[in-house]
Fold this sequence. Notes:
Elements: E1 2-8, H1 15-28, E2 32-37, H2 52-63, E3 69-71, H3 84-94, E4 99-105, H4 106-109, E5 126-131, H5 144-152, E6 171-175, H6 183-191, H7 202-211
Parallel strand pairs: 1-2, 1-4, 2-3, 4-5, 5-6
Helix pairs in contact: 2-7
Amino acid sequence: MKLGILGGAFNPPHYGHLRAALEAKEGLGLEKVLLIPSGHHPFKGSDVLAAPNHRLAMTTLACAADPGLESCAIEVVQATTTFTIDTLETLSQHYPDHELVFLMGSDLMNELHLWKSWHRLLDVAHLCQMTRPGSFTKNTEIAQETQEWLQHHHRPNLTSIPQNQGSRFGFLQWPITQLAISSSDIRLRVQSGKSIRFLTTESVIDYIHHHGLYRSIVQSP
């Protein structure tokens, strides 16, 4: 069985996140996809993030409409900065009968070389770069060392295992419909009093308004 992992700030979660998770689940044959809101994010300032408990609650609400999508609090409950390699290693222990598939947007690939122990990621999970349909990328903006590492472990799908690799896990690219929706745009619309209907679920919209989120740039816990 294969388990999808989609991390992010989810600040707030929106239909772009949900659509990507659903298409990855269906296309890659995943049992389900865990959406994991970040806790203390190493690359984002706290002034742009709603409190972790709010982002987890919104993600749970967003996932409620599809049984194949599920929120996960593994990073939110941590008191210190969380790193992807630590999260994946913990999840591999929690799900010993599953192959983990870590889903990444193309923008994250450019900073992969900055991640803690990035070269160990393929020890615990497949890496899947989600791309626009018909536009598989060559990762030309990625650091040279990382690019060579990805190319060495590249495979066309999850079931193929290159003969020259001893690793159980590999890197692949998968086409995903990328909707022109962003969390930052949603936050700005809320701040300026504009509607965010049809950008995220009604349950998330209600939560944002009920808790007064994003009415100013700085969020309180």
